[in-house]
Design goal:
293 residues, Trp Operon Repressor, Chain A, binds S-adenosylmethionine
């Protein structure tokens, strides 16, 4: 999968794939092994004046400057990307990073990871001429409800979250399935949802239940559970007893309840849409969830 990043600060990304914010860990490995590629394009290279001007004053007045559409168009043309209106169906997406965009989420990352090419346009100053959105982009994405000074950090976030979902990038394919915002491990026995005895159901679930719990198993719409490693006691705090017990069912139950507790504490907004069993709800009720006071 190929990424093209359009920016007026190409040095922000360092010398790929060795340096800078994309030169580390999983992303760097994906770039070095060819599972993904990232190409950084300097928008000033598509200007035609002595000062390499990429911005201009806003029509209608007001403070700040606006990125001009022409360098962006010419950069896209150099990548053989035609205006949206003439593109038709493709496995490419041209995206403007913008605080006014739709929220970038894990499911957006999953969708992007199925494409062949993603082009990320980084805004600066007051933003980008709106005709870039109207004519050239498939979508605008925001990485959160705050205003950054430029789209480069947002582009790095989108690239990182997407690249790690590409097949073969993570050491274990399940690592990106069973994590926050992902799928869940098999059902804890005895936890029934709406009369169904198991989320996963059937012999497969029974077999999985006999094996060790997954190392990362949020989820069904919950946050991941807390993780612990050695030493078993640190600054007087011991790991939860269940995790050291070797009892797979006890570990699954602890992890499920810890994920519920963490989601309630940090992201209660996720709970109404989460896939909860009757036992999950009972457990949450012991923590005060669902009480009207
Ligand atoms: N005037 C704009 C507004 O109020 O929405 C803010 C412009 S911001 C200072 C400059 C650039 O940073 C934007 O064009 C965009 O590319 C990027 N940016 C800022 N916040 C962002 C966010 N939450 N998500 C993605 N990109 C963002």
């Amino acid at each position: 999968m190929r990424f093209d990043i359009l920016t007026i600060f190409p040095e922000f990304f360092g010398a790929l794939p060795d340096q800078g914010i994309l030169g580390h860990g999983v992303v760097s490995r994906a770039l070095r092994t060819g599972l993904s590629s990232a190409h950084i394009h300097d928008l000033r290279g598509f200007t035609h004046d002595r000062h390499r001007t990429v911005d201009d004053r806003p029509f209608g007045g007001g403070e700040g400057m606006v990125l001009k559409p022409q360098p962006i168009l010419e950069c896209l043309e150099s990548l053989a990307i035609v205006p949206r209106t003439t593109r038709g169906v493709s496995r490419e997406a041209v995206i403007l990073l913008s605080a006014q965009g739709k929220r970038f989420t894990q499911s957006t990352a999953r969708r992007l990871a199925t494409l062949d090419r993603v082009v990320l346009i980084c805004g600066r100053y007051e933003g980008v001429d709106e005709r870039v959105v109207q004519l050239l982009c498939d979508e605008e994405l925001s990485i959160g409800d705050y205003v950054l000074s430029g789209g480069e950090l947002a582009a790095a976030v989108v690239l990182d979250a997407t690249v790690r979902l590409l097949p073969g990038v993570l050491g274990h394919a399940d690592s990106s399935r069973y994590e926050s915002f992902g799928e869940g491990d098999v059902q804890v026995p005895g936890q029934e949802k709406n009369g169904r005895s198991s989320r996963s159901g059937g012999a497969a679930a029974t077999n999985e239940l006999q094996g060790p719990p997954r190392s990362t198993n949020a989820s069904h719409g919950l946050l991941d559970y807390p993780h612990y490693t050695r030493p078993a006691e640190f600054l007087g705090v011991s790991i939860p007893e269940a995790l050291g017990s070797g009892d797979h069912q006890a570990i699954r139950l602890w992890r499920r309840q810890a994920a519920l507790a963490k989601t309630l504490a940090n992201r209660p907004d996720l709970l109404p849409a989460a896939d909860l069993s009757d036992d999950d709800r009972k457990f949450l009720a012991t923590l005060g969830y669902g009480r009207s006071d």
